[in-house]
Every structure is written in structure tokens, then in C-alpha cells.
Amino acid sequence: MKRTSVVKGIVSVGILLALLLAGAAPSGSGRNSVELPAPILSLVSE
Amino acid sequence: MRLLPLTLGLLLLALALWFGPRRLGRLASLELRGGWLAALALLVQAAGIALPQLRLALLLISAALLVRFCWLNRGLVGIGLASCGIALNMAVMAANGGAMPIPPESLARLEMQLTVGSDLPLQKSRVLADEEAVLAGLGDRLHLPGALGDRVAWSIGDVLLIAGIARLLAATLGGPSRHAA
Question: Alpha-carbon distance A32 to B102, whole Å?
């Protein structure tokens, strides 16, 4: 793949990301971690 | 906010898995016009978060920029759907002083504790009870099932916008190199 094509693709994704960030307005909890389900958590802790 | 970049990344990953990673090269054929308008709209909205007293005015400026961007790209698949989503979000935010209303019940699900009328830190949202919000049904009140639902509340406009972008990306990766509606 040509370098110019890669740059064009990245620019397109960047524009769509800007559109998403400007147009959407979700509310997030700000928490970064997702709690593991209890059975998996018990396996990890063992 | 990392949530939306993550959403777009997951969308691309899913489409790459569906159509094959080589198809990602077709993103280069996606000819979006006026990309600077979307970038400027984002900057203006960021300024609105930093300057709450100018939030409504800056929201309207960013909405005008987004309208122009969508008009320039109206011939692309999915942009119509995305435009509907943006219009719904802008309408409800403009009607509520420039902020997206989130009801206390949804906020409780996110395990956040803020008083009614206060803004969520570094976000576009404001805690408003349904009887205080205008167009409350278009606010952030949709939750995914399971644990993910405790992390984010979405609006109908968000869903339409993401669906429109997904449709555009799917048409780009799955179809021929040029995509007219």
C-alpha cells in the first residue's frame, strides 16, 4: 500500500473521529476499568 | 474523553474482521469534503466546555459548522443518518442551554453523585430531571445491557450518528471504491 494511501486513510478516520466527537454527547462515568464477572475474579484471585 | 475514539476503533476493528483487514486500505478512497469544518466544530465545542458562560453560543457556532460539513458530504452513504443524529443532539442541547441533559436515574447508574443542575466534569452533559429538561427524551438515557451499561449513557442522537458512521465505513470497506447514495 502506498504511503499516500495510508495518510489518506488516516485523515479520513481523523475527520470521522472529529465528527463523532463534535456531534455525539454521551455521558461517561469516567471509570477506566471494567469489573470482571465474579467467577473470573475468583479464578484470578486464587 | 476516550469513549468515542474507542467506539470508532471497535467499529473499524469489527468491520476489518468482517470484510478482511486488507479492505482497510479502501479508507483512502473515502473522499470527505470540508474535514476542517468537523475539526473546527470540535475545537469550538471544547472551548464551550472550558467557557460555560459561552457554551450555548459556541454550541450554535459548532452546529452551523457541522451542518455545512454534512451538506458538503450529503451524497455519501450514511451521512444522512449521521446528520439526523447530530441534529437531534444539537436540538436538545440548544434547548437546554448548550448542555446535554442526563436524568438523575441515569447518573445513578453511572455511580456518579452530582447535584441536579450541575455539569459533568469535562463533558457536554448536565444533570437535569425530566420535568426540568426540554426534550428530555432526547437526552442521555440509553444504556447498554450488562456491565457496559454502568459506564456510559447514550442519547438517541448518539445512536443515529454512530449508525450513520458505521454505514459509511461499511459501504467504504465492503463496496466499490466510490460510494454515492
Answer: 20
